[in-house]
Specification:
CATH architecture of one domain: 3-Layer(aba) Sandwich
Structural class: alpha/beta
Shape: globular
Mean pLDDT: 92
Number of strands: 22
Strand content: 15-25%
Radius of gyration: 25 Å
CATH superfamily of one domain: Alpha-D-Glucose-1,6-Bisphosphate, subunit A, domain 3
């Protein structure tokens, strides 16, 4: 005899049946029918699964939507995406100028369902009265961000989950016009979310109007390629590099950019070069994750590569590795902070060509005497913004030291390129999670392809002068002091565990982290220095070290960022001192968050 179902079971079954009646996807239909039948028979696991899928809904926020592909309002699927598209269309129509037809350009990568989510969106947008333009094929996220501005679109949508697990997908939204193709921020996110919820409550997906849409010409892709290739001067020396796309969509566009810019093509990691939604050679398609770069290291050893470059699956991030005799792999992946610092140094030198590189940099300790509001407000016409370097609050203070030395403005922002890209006067921005913005005149988002071009240009110049990227990093430490950084990332199954840790740190603030005394703690919960409220703690130590603690915005993780700095002694002494402080902070923070 079947077990007696809980009192709530009829309601959740009815909710699931109502969803099933709207679902156009045979795969998720089968999932849902199986769960409904099991729940109707009193299967506790099926009932629990239905509650997991329907008790809540994937939130639409400044990161758009992102989640596992499956049936239910708390998953990514064609019903949820259709409701999102119809809600976004309603928002665009409500906010269009009188007599102006809003427009949207839609891109998609090689993940599961990316194409179908994109075409559903295009048809629904067109049916609602929005001019809908679909990019011609699967392409990197930076091409979509570029296309919003190039096509003068009101909005852009990129269907991607970037470097998330294989079964995830997502929906990133960009705004055009005065927002210049940047990702959405408040209040647009909540206004769009309101429209989506209205559609979900009042409309049935099969009844939403659909119409024919446009497909963009290849010209938009070629325009991106030309703009990105234009970042590089003719290479003074060619670099023996290895490239991997991690089963994503980066290679074809990257190849065309490199050819147009005059670079020799790199050796490819053949097993990872073609788009593959299953990501068969990696357990997690993120170049920061252990093992993700192993095939690239193997290929690099075979050809004696001077450099490894890797894009994540949608090519908005760039990973870099250099030869390292002390590493078992023979190569060391540089941190996002290291790459951000050296690309920032390159940008500063280009922006201030009369700066004397042999002059002593001011003793800033990594913190320049500039406004660090990070509000993203535009400079007025009377006071145009000076050239600005920008990074997120969890990224290394090294960029601030570069800005101070070159007399440039520096801006800290909240985490996310939706904030970094809005810094007034921006010439370069980065985020420690391998995101770099080197061409803000074309793309107002992180771009792993243009960053690769900038890096190859730098490495080629160094090679022509008899130097390596490792030498350049040493020069950075000699010039600005040595900055060390690392990260603690704790994945949880119960997200309430993260809230408990944040509450404990606020209610019982530590006096020591390891053996280093805490100077003060900044709580961003109510906003700070002009930044919007955010669930972030900044712990400043008496030795000048810094710890940032925050929940991840896209994954069930608690993230802790550790940064230290030393500008005393030789390069080796600076590195040793900074690394010793880093080890102490790591030990102390692991004990605090356990």
């Amino acid at each position: 005899m079947a077990a007696e179902a809980p009192a709530s079971t009829p309601a959740i079954i009815e909710t699931a049946r109502a969803w099933l009646a709207q679902d156009p996807d045979p795969e998720t239909q089968v999932q849902l029918r199986t769960l409904i039948n099991g729940a109707s028979d009193g299967d506790a696991a099926a009932i629990a699964d239905l509650h997991s899928r329907f008790d809540t809904r994937l939130d639409f926020g400044t990161a758009g939507l992102r989640g596992g592909i499956a049936a239910g309002s708390n998953r990514m699927n064609r019903v949820l995406v259709s409701q999102a598209a119809a809600g976004l269309a309603s928002y665009l129509l409500r906010h269009a100028l009188p007599g102006v037809t809003p427009s949207i350009v839609i891109g998609y990568d090689g993940r599961k369902n990316s194409h179908v989510f994109a075409t559903d969106t295009a048809a629904l947008m067109a049916g609602a009265g929005v001019r809908a333009i679909l990019l011609p094929r699967l392409l990197p996220t930076p091409v979509l961000a570029f296309a919003v501005r190039h096509l003068n679109a009101s909005c852009g949508v990129m269907v991607t989950a970037s470097h998330n697990p294989p079964n995830d997908n997502g929906y990133k939204v960009y705004l055009g016009d005065e927002f210049q193709g940047a990702q959405i921020v408040a209040p647009a996110d909540s206004l769009i979310a309101t429209e989506i919820l209205r559609v979900a409550a009042d409309e049935l997906v099969p009844n939403l109007p659909r119409a024919g849409y446009e497909t963009a010409d290849e010209e938009v892709v070629q325009a991106y390629i030309a703009a990105t290739a234009g970042l590089a001067h003719p290479p003074r020396a060619q670099v023996n590099a290895v490239y991997t796309a991690l089963h994503g969509v980066g290679w074809d566009t990257t190849r065309r950019v490199l050819v147009e810019a005059g670079f020799d093509l790199p050796t490819l990691v053949d097993a990872q070069i073609a788009p593959d939604a299953a990501f068969p050679t990696v357990s997690f398609p993120n170049p920061e994750e252990p093992g993700a770069m192993d095939l690239a290291y193997e290929t690099a050893r075979e050809v004696g590569a001077e450099l490894i470059i890797a894009n994540d699956p949608d090519a908005d991030r760039l990973a870099v590795a250099i030869p390292d005799a002390d590493s078992d792999a023979g190569y060391r992946r540089l941190s996002g902070n290291e790459v951000g610092a050296i690309l920032g140094w390159r940008a500063a030198a280009l922006a201030a060509p009369n700066y004397d590189p042999e002059a002593d940099a001011p003793e800033t300790g990594g913190v320049p005497a500039t406004d660090v509001s990070g509000t993203g407000a535009e400079a007025s016409a009377e006071t145009p913004a000076r050239p600005t370097l920008a990074c997120s609050i969890v990224s290394s203070p090294a960029l601030a030291a570069v800005a101070a030395a070159y007399g440039l403005d520096f801006t800290e922002t909240l985490t996310g390129f939706k904030w970094v890209s809005r810094a007034p006067g921006l010439i370069f921005g980065f985020e420690e999670a391998l995101g770099y913005l080197v061409n803000p005149e074309s793309v107002r988002d992180k771009d792993g392809i243009s960053a690769a071009v900038a890096l190859l240009s730098l490495v080629g110049d160094l090679k022509a002068d008899g130097l390596t990227l490792a030498d350049y990093l040493d020069r950075f430490s000699a010039k600005f002091g040595h900055f060390s950084s690392s990260q603690i990332s704790v994945r949880v199954t119960d997200v309430s565990d993260i809230a408990r840790v944040m509450t404990r740190l606020r209610e019982t603030p530590p006096e020591l982290i390891g053996r280093i005394r805490v100077d003060h703690i900044d709580d961003f919960r109510w906003g700070l220095n002009g930044l919007a409220p955010s669930d972030v703690l900044r712990i400043v130590l008496t030795d000048g070290s810094r710890v940032m603690v925050r929940p991840s915005g896209t994954e069930p993780k608690l993230k802790v960022y550790l940064d230290t700095h030393s500008n005393s002694g030789t390069i080796d002494e600076r590195r040793a001192a900074a690394d010793a402080s880093l080890a102490e902070l790591d030990r102390g923070m692991r004990a605090l968050i356990a």
